[in-house]
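Appendix B, Record 12. Input sequence as logged:
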Amino acid sequence: MELFKQSGMIDFMGRSKLAAAISLLVVVLSVVLIVTRGLNYGVDFSGGTIVQVKYETVAPIAQIRQQLAVHPLFADASVTEFGSSEEVIIRLGGSSGSIESDIGDEAAKVLQGSGAFEIRRVDMVGPKVGGELREKGLMALLLAILGILIYVTFRFEWRFSVASVLALVHDLTISVGALALFQIPVNLDVLAALLTILGYSLNDTIIVFDRIREGVTQLKTAVLSETINDSVTRTLSRTTLTSMTTLLVVVMLYLFGGEIINAFAFTLLVGIVVGTYSSIFVASPILLYLGFDVKAYRARIAEKAKQAAERERMRAQFEQGTL
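Logged structural output:
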């Protein structure tokens, strides 16, 4: 199925310098945001306690804050609406130090008189556990990138591998920069979204690279930019359809999925848009900058085919007893 048919070849590489300048600017701004504003680590990574409270009517946030402020345990707590006007989240910087003291019970006592409510959820993560989760999350991202580097190197060649990894770093940097800009809480669900972006963006890039490799061996031209333009043009309809359908689902999740998956959906939303862009305007031009040689690649492919044919001939002779 094609969204549209392209009669001619689009000169994507002719716009590669402008795209590179835009990408570099956005990446630098993202790094500046990450360094200056920092990431808003959620309870999963920073440690702390979350108490989710559901009221039968509209939650009186001002009264809740007033009642919590007089209790030593909740003096520094933050209260925010959660998904609807009837639910609130109470966030604490630490967990209960006493085994006999249950934070949910304490919150219920403090909130008495603020209306009819129920304590729906209490999540506690210690600072040490949060630090370990943060380190392991970063390690998971690095290992995923390393695995991708090895996989693409074996499937294609090292220039394709470097180009795909740089495109992934581009996508992750901009996605994390957006999290820093809007101070989205970074929890395990956001980490899952970042890992999903790695897979999604790589899938798009591999599709384009596979078509480029096919074009290098089949097209008559030895000019890499023309081969890339032809390959990207041929995959454009498929890329657009895939991105639009995925984006539609993620937008619905963001709008109607509720507060609990808001950060996850937002991260995916940014990552899908940036990943689709990078597979065309970041990954492919890097092959040009790395000096990929079409003629040398064709010679290597021809040599491998010759060696394979020779092995097949020798195997046939051995089976016939003529070797």
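The chain is about 65% helix and 10% strand.
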